[in-house]
Batch of 3 targets.
Target 1
Amino acid sequence: MSQGGAAARGAATSQDEGWAWMVLLASVLLQGLTLGFPSCIGVFFTDLQHEFQASNSETSWFPSIMVAVLHGGGPLCSVLVKRFGCRFAVMLGGLLSGVGMVSSSFCKSISQLYLTAGLITGLGSCFSFQAGVTVLGYYFVRWRTLANAMASTGVSLGFTLWPLLSQYLLDEMGWRNTFLIFGGILLNCCVCGAIMRPVQLASGSLLQSPKPAEEPGKRAEGAQLSNGASSPHPELQQQTRRTACFQMLQKYLAFDIFCQNKGYQIYTIGVTWMMMGFALPHVYLVPYAIQNGVEERRAALLISIIGFINIFIRPLTGLLSGHRIFTGRRIYLFSLAVLLCGLSNFICVISAEFSVLIIYCVILSIAMSGIGALTFQVLMDVVEMDRFSSALGLFTILESITLLIGPPLTGLLVDITSDFHCVFYNSSFFLISAALFMGLSFFALEKKNKLKEASKVPLDNPSRYQYNEMPTEPQSESQSPPAVVYITSI
């Protein structure tokens, strides 16, 4: 056997063993460095307000932009990964994140902070996180589910450690030097990306660096020119560009699914509405506690408690939801978690004592674990797997819009009323209304589909209209690996 064939076979067997576990460790660190990072912004909320003489609404734009870009940059990241590969995307993201935080330490106004720490760091975190999740699908086949579950623990670790480190550095050297140190820490994403070397198939072809497909218009134009023909008519060129643009939008943003699939439509609207209130406690809990006399170190500990409990509860929630009892009923479990999250906010309204806030964080963390574990599992249940990546693109962009505007609007309400209780009333309103909307709508949709089945009314495509489990057809070994799926975790 040739040496080249032996080397290719050795590279192919690296899946599920050996270097794959180093890549998994790098992915755990990436999720802690990227998705876990916004959890510490609330620690700096009061200091940034005093430094820039900004209102609650103006200050809250900073974490809102970061989180919105982190969640909504998926389609851009998918193009980057397809063109250059996962390793390049992760390392570019780490560079952007580091540069963004270093630049933010020199900002002279809150608007400059929006650009540096908000846009640049958020976009870099998006690239690193989503490309890091994608590479696990290449390195793991047999243990892919386990690998993704273990990688998601990095988010909880980030939630636990970032606020504690932030409060310590803030007390010791101020927010500017802390942001400078954070820039150096986030550059470690580049190290994690360097570990993610491309995987090879037995044939020797690289899995991670697919060549971008040519647009149909360019292929047709190239064929004509190669045959000696003149270039197409300008109107035909324009029509070709429109067709290519429409195909790209349909590939990354599934508007056709949104219009035709009632289950996807209900779920997307419900989660988008939910996100208006979901992020509010993470942004305002620390300043709310400080305003009510809680020591700053103890206030930062509240966010860490949420992250620490998530480490243990989220895997248990994932295992529970995978039980056959909940097959076809995960949406109701998800709605129950959202409802619990909304009701828990009333605890903060009752009292702002530290012991009461700890109870609130425990209940909130349990509810958040259910939401985080089920968000994308429910999406897989209501959408065919061959269109999942497209449905996910539209889903994350819509939720990023409400993540962007939710905290600033609530901050404006706090500025007007001078009452932090508005934060938790507002959050409860959006969460409870979203939970009731999704639960009741899916119940009505399920009942309607049962009546249709009973009356023997044929449907063109039943899977489009009813909420059920979407099985994926098994692929033969000769087929290429499944399409890349970019998942944003909460």
Target 2
Amino acid sequence: MVRHKPSRFVDDDVVLPVGRSDLRLPSRPYFTKRSARVLLILALVSCALVVFHLGHSTRDDASQYLYLGTMENNSTENRLPPLYESYHDYERHLPQHNLSLPYPEGRDAKFFWAANHVHSSGWGNSMQELLVNALLSHTVNRAFVFDNYTWDPDGPDYSVYNGKLIPSRIPHSAIISGPIIGSSWPPGDPTPRSVSREYFERVCPHPLVIDSYEINKELRLDTSVPASVIFDEWVDRLNSLRDPCVEIKRSSFQIFEIWLFGSSRILSLWPRLSKSPVLHNFSWSPLVLQAYAQNAHLFDSPSRSLSFLPSYLRSSNAAPISPASLHNVEPILTPNQTNPVPGLLALHVRRGDFAAHCAHLAKWAADWNGFNKFAALPDKFRPPPESGRGHTTEENLQLYMKRCFPTIEQITDKVRKVLEEQYSLYGNSRELKRVYVMTNGDQEWLEELKAALMEVKRWDAVVTSRDLSLGWEAKPVAQAVDMLVGQRAQVIIGNGFSSLTSNIVMFRMLRELPPEDTRFW
């Protein structure tokens, strides 16, 4: 059912359409009840002791998002996680948040807000949905309404995950840059710039609300229906609407669900996504790029230049980054500018909670994530027919664990095989010399893995996510640093069941890197 949402605000002179000359949103302080927040944090820390071994059941890459590296300064170890107030405030004051702007923005703008976007899920899952929702909005020439990377949309500022406090909401500008979160579209593009959820809610108190089930009901679980069909149905529907403010009902199913991304159905959207400025103008945030530069000596030759980054983001520059530079949403390093690091082998090795997740996948005969199933890629996977509906055989369980949660021996066997195949293709001209392991494994296990990898070959270095030196604000977004390393690796061995891997693969395919350089367990 389509309906108009009741008003959220009473100041009707700040909604569409109006005639005031400048209606930018005012600043809203985040620390209005500091004492109450401190008490809340103390309560959450107490709860963390109780839930340490319970955690939260969630999808795919959630736990790896949280606190992978070591702190840059030991004095910050006992600090609470950042809440990114300055990033929120920057997003709140984007220049397009102004109703007096000329067409196609200002009072003439049309908006698309997917209030039902995924939350309480890993960054990999959230990112893939974000990209396709933004693609849909751009296709129908509506301003995309972006939110935060969200663990808890309504609760306190902090959540408890696996016994640790994490930010409940991280502004996207701390993780990514580009037109998805408000930079300009390419010259001549008629699409209005993206706006924040706060601005949308301020100027659109009575949006047209659509339940996604109305369109997706017969399509969402039909494995014969490609994602492009669902996408086109939504394009037709949104193009038929004259309402400037369109919102997808928050309690309805996501338009593009994990069932799509978790199958080859999503590949039908690649021809559009791969040509869209949503991807071509995508960039990691200045915060992520700075963290990469500060750790580049771990996975790149010390003599290699970081000239592809602005000087203010390079580790050799001791001057502090200005707020305007740190919060810049303009793309700095687009996928086509992300050149491979010669000699770098990246491994995506999930541990911890992923063991139970992989066993669950076996019981339901799950397939690889769709963007890990490009036909050109050499490694394949087909779910065995004897599994599914909550049951599997021991043989199939071991098959899934080898491809999803490999042992140290299985990891080194795969690395040896890839080295042999690389040598047969290129000889010594593209020798792999360094290893970077993207992981949430514990330190003791990783030391065993490092030693085993050194027995495969005398590498120049073997380092892991745990070896990164990360500042206070960079630590909660460390997974994005890993993803950039994976993008730039000469060769990667990823996890076919992981959305983190699939997002890396998507960028590598966009960059047209050799398919034989993208591998899976």
Target 3
Amino acid sequence: MIPCTKTGCHRWFRNKSGLTQHVNVYHPVLPSVNISVPVEQCQESSAGEEHSQVLPDGYGDSGNPLDDPSNSNPLAEYVGPGDRYYRNYHPNLTGRPCDSLGNFLPAGHPAEPLTDMRPDDWSPYSSRLEFELADFLFTRSQMSAANINELLNLWNASLLSTGGQPIFRDSSEMYKTIDSMPLGDVQWEKFSTSYTGERPTENVPPWMNDTYDIWFRSPKEVIRNMLSRPDFLDAIDYRLFREYESATDSRQWEDFMSGDWAWKQADTISRDPATHGSTFVPIILGSDKTMVSVATGQNDYYPLYLSIGNIRNKVHHAHRNGVILIAFLAIPHSESSRHLFHSSLAYILHDLMPGMTEPIVMRFGDGHYRRVIFGLGPYIADYEEQVLLACIVRGWCVKCLAMRQALDTDALYRSREHAEALIEEFDLKNLRDEYGIIGDIIPFTSGFPHADIYELIAPDILHQIIKGTFKDHLVEWVESYLKAMHGTAKANAIFDDIDRRIAAVAPFTGLRRFPEGRHFKQWTGNDSKALMKVYLPAIEGHVPVEIVRTFRALLEFTYLIRRNVITEETLVTIEDAINHFHKHREIFRESGTVQTFSLLRQHAMKHYPDLIRLFGAPNGLCTSITELKHIDAVKDPYRQTNRNKPLGQMLIINQRLDKLAASRRDFSRRGMLEGSCLTATMQLFSTRDGRAHSNTSEAPGSNRCNEDTDEAVDCPTSIEAHVELARTPQTKRARTVTELTAELNLQHLPTILEEFLLQQLDTYDNCDSDLPEWPTYGNKITVVNAAAALFYAPSDISGIGGMRREYICSCHSWQNGAPQYDCAFVNTDSGLKGMYGLDIRYPCAVVRWFDRVGDKPDTDTGMWIVRPAFTAQRRPSIGIIHVDTLYRAAHLIPLYATRPVSRNLKLHHSYDSFTAFYINKFIDHHAFSLLSDSY
């Protein structure tokens, strides 16, 4: 038996690994802070310090019945229009407003104003123009200091003749102004860490003797800034809840706070009555290696990001900076250096520890103060990071105890308690061989209350499913299968035809083009996502139906788990998709393509239903969020540096970006950024001159969403779908019905137009008039080349309200190139659900109809099949529809079957060269929901 050597501790252990874990958990030694900030920082106000104080004992005795620990009944409320859904809220952690000292306020008590600054106070900037210029140069243009100086020199030279004053003399003055803004100011700090464990007697690895610098920002202050953001006002959950459909009492999961993990944590935390009435704030972390380590010439840097579980998933979809860079972890190249990684994380997060057991007071974006209790939540990471975090041997599952040679079997979940018992019982070798546990390294979570690293590992859709199971497994297996079945020569011919099929797919908004097929030197996550949308029809006819069904099962699983709202019925469908995937993939083993399905990334699929129940919809916890953050927080700032010791410059750049973003939010909240800078300046001058202001600016609060060209649109969620024609008429197109008849070569167009006009007059059904008495249209017409469809698609890239825009085109030459005639869904019967109430149209306004083939989707691919419609005289079925019946764009992929694709086929000929098409439900998540049919 081995005793603990710490003074006052009387524990004994059977082996060294048990002693190691005990010391790390109960007697941790944290590194000390050496130096502070890289730039001059503003001091926190005394008021800010007061608001973060730990509340004294007994502060929770408010007399409110919600603070009574015996009150365990959930609070139920209807949510949304029509009372279709209701929520049960946690009865104890209720997010009650309080004052700055933590005293609860009576219901309905108004919040204090967020600021007492006037609506014309641009401090520290002198004017809107000065702020907008700084924001444009530093945030949007990301201009270097040298280029900023050159631009300002030219600008200032132009002012000499008029006697004008320059806005900024040079880049240094602009940087100083940005740095003086206290909003968003969380200083960077640095500490040094080194290995303090046992060393070998000889050949000591260099990393054991080295000292490593870690740059970080206080996570508590970062969270304070996030909670106080007014732009999160309608996108943050103060309370934990379970949501149900009113008619069936069926549960559904959406944002993080709807999951069982948060509720279970609240149950544990609220055993202490002093926490009642508080707001639970789960801490979500994420880290990943980045190539910036090569540029810096130092050891690997791991950017560490932080978010909070209160922020709803739509904030992440809208890329609204709900994930913040809080540290760069400097870790050397060695598996044995995991000690440094975990001790660094533990130190960075140590200022959150007091707030995990005793609430502290923080201010929220609605102006109210609330008591806050922290909890260590999910960690977003790819597999290489997961094994590092969980102290698991590579090749083992970090979630369960399945043997790495038999990952396709079921096994119990790992847990902190079970791992600690094993470590005390077995030696290090048995732990590695039998359980995949590295017993002499303790996860950083061990020192935090209620934190189980095995439970907290988040799902990773990007690496486990999209890049892993789809690209690295199935796509590669298809190539191996074809070579094994047909030989290399014939297989290469089939590959060429598959590539031509992929290259011939008609264009669509947001669809990545594959002009050369699948051949890439390096695949990115976006490449894999794009290939998923078009790959299934491309291989049909070249592979057995079992392989087609394997891909269908995986694709449907992927799109189901990416839904914004997942119901109990959806979970059943997800499990069905997993079962079908396991059933149909057997063809690869039977054909000898693969020998085993003991594969980590495919094994991970079976954990998704339970992870959804724990954490809500997994699209809010994917590594694609942190990888996208790399661009803003690491790669773009690096490009702004002079490459000489760039890390310090990158820290300053990130700090200034945060300050500018905070300033923009503050100015927007005070209504100071309405309209453009030009119109606001014109209004200011006209007011000073006593002239009436011309109607050149937008009305305050107006939304310019119709002029936004991005796919994500920040419009209110007030409609399901809306279509508007382009505002610019085409001067080179037909201007009369006669000219349009000739242009489209449709001799019966006037007749179709008359029928349409009768329908609009609601006289068609009762009309017995002869044809000559029907209304005619002899006036001029306007032709446009496109329409914009705005619709609610929260599972796709969308605005903070879940709205998304796409363009529907119909023109002879799109952007001076080939013609583009898009397809669209038309609502022909609003009383029918999904595809049963929709038909497909070819051009816009004047449409060519498509007919459904059958009453159900295709059995193998799961996609609906359509073909061009014809009249009784075998003429194409043409119609004219009102724009209000358009729903959104549709994407068709030819039904290739076994027909080889010509090398001369161009993508803009795709719709004219085939007689049957799949409606591509995998083009995006909204289309998948619209067109899906369960097994």
